[in-house]
Write a structure and sequence with these properties.
single chain, alpha+beta, BirA Bifunctional Protein, domain 2, five-stranded mixed sheet, 30% strand, globular, binds zinc ion
């Protein structure tokens, strides 16, 4: 198990502005979270790294941003209205609701995880509870106006398959990728931002000839695993887990999860599934539109198979935070460092005047700061003594601290301190941009 606890991460996130509870001043809303000033940067960096890797660094994937609200027929075709359900039971003693398959105990003899009362599933059979969040479109609230907040971004891609293919003159294999919010009315959300009712997904649907699906599936698993490792996740905390045939979703032929060792155990970060032609076939049938692909070489018509890497932005953010967190002993005191990968760090550099009551130092610091902020995310901080400022920046993962002191006024040099090694270099101000560029920042 990793040494950092969830309590430590939750507390750091709140204290330093990564994640706040939603509507906190009203007592919060269950399992809904807001991303603060640093959290929004971290999330943006994660999404950007994904977008680069899945779209810009390949030539066979197109981007998309489809709407959260979709025609209700989509969810009938996709199987979500019928099958996107969890078994729900009420505890007979405390009346709290749980997912029957998550209750401790065996077979029909389960226990309430809250009050400990016995729950007999034979006499108290679970009801199937649909996880889609509903709302109404237009001024009339009745069943004819019911729409759903999408429970996955994937269906927005499938219904746009022909639009993207035709507008971008695509031949197989090619993919469509998007990042966006999805909603699931989970009965038992939890573990901070790991399982929430409103969350953000990074999904791609990669369309292939059916006979190529197996090989392409393996390629995507490898590529997605490497993405996490390249962004600094410790290899011993990342593993692949292939789904057994009895846990596969109804649409999938095969699925492999990428799991991370969270403080609460191994849990899914991302699933890479072979969805066969299930979705396109369903949508073709329900919409009456021809979604087949005509192979220009063989003149064969068929429905493509789909390989789907589907990851959670919030889960990735939590994994990167947990993985980066470390405590060190420095000269008898504790130093907390968020060793985030340079691409993910919310703030790349901080400019710190050593003496904030010396106008020349402040002026020089501000000048350096305004120069740097055209290139990188940089902050100016004069709210404490230098030791304290260093610790604060370490704790939020800032890569470099640039300090201006009395000496700087004479020799035009500043001290640049690196986060991980705490190594300090004296750098001429004229060379600062170049120095940070060499480090892969600017
Ligand atoms: Zn109970």
């Amino acid at each position: 198990m990793p040494e950092v606890s969830m309590d430590t991460i939750v507390s750091l996130c709140k204290r330093r502005g990564f994640v706040f509870q939603s509507s906190e001043i009203y007592g919060g809303l269950g399992s809904v979270w807001d991303y603060g000033p640093l959290g929004v940067e971290l999330k943006k960096n994660i999404k950007n790294a994904w977008w680069c890797s899945v779209i810009y660094e390949r030539d066979d994937v197109e981007g998309l941003d489809s709407a959260i609200l979709m025609h209700p027929a989509v969810w009938k075709a996709s199987g979500h209205i019928e099958g996107f359900t969890d078994p729900l039971v009420d505890c007979p003693a405390c009346r709290k609701r749980f997912r029957a398959d998550h209750l401790p105990g065996e077979g029909n003899c389960r226990r309430c995880p809250d009050c400990g009362a016995e729950i007999d599933l034979e006499n108290n059979p679970p009801r199937m509870f649909n996880l889609m969040l509903k709302t109404f479109l237009g001024p009339v609230e009745d069943s004819s106006s019911t729409v759903y907040l999408r429970p996955e971004t994937a269906q927005g891609i499938f219904v746009n398959f022909a639009n993207v293919r035709n507008s971008r003159f695509r031949k197989l294999p090619f993919g469509i990728a998007q990042i966006g919010k999805s909603f699931r009315n989970e009965i038992t959300p939890g573990n901070f931002i790991f399982r929430t009712r409103e969350f953000e997904q990074m999904e791609a649907e990669y369309f292939v000839k059916p006979e190529d699906a197996g090989v392409v599936h393996q390629e995507w698993i490898k590529q997605r695993q490497e993405w996490y490792l390249n962004l600094g996740i410790q290899p011993e905390r990342l593993r692949l887990r292939e789904h057994a045939s009895n846990e596969l979703a109804h649409y999938a032929q095969a699925c492999t999860d990428i799991e991370y060792l969270f403080p609460f155990g191994w849990s899914e970060l991302e699933g890479i599934a072979n969805r066969r032609d299930f979705d396109l076939r369903q949508h073709a049938e329900h919409s009456g539109k021809d979604l087949t692909y005509l192979d220009p070489a063989t003149k064969e018509r068929f429905l493509p198979y789909v390989i789907e890497p589907s990851g959670g932005v919030d889960r990735a953010a939590l994994a990167f935070l947990v993985d980066a967190y470390r405590e060190e002993e420095v000269k008898g005191s504790k130093r907390v460092v968020l060793g985030l990968h340079p691409e993910l760090a919310p703030i790349k550099a901080a400019v710190l005047p050593l003496l904030r009551n010396r106008p020349e130092i402040v002026e020089m610091s501000r000048k350096i700061y305004t120069g740097l902020r055209k290139k990188i995310v940089v902050k100016y901080d004069d709210t404490g003594a230098i030791g304290k400022l260093y610790r604060r920046q370490d704790e939020i993962g800032t890569l470099y601290c640039v300090t201006v002191d009395v000496q700087s006024l004479e020799d035009n040099q500043v001290t640049v301190r690196e986060r991980d090694t705490m190594r300090q270099d004296r750098i001429n101000v004229e060379r600062l941009n170049e120095y940070l560029t060499d480090k892969g920042l600017a």
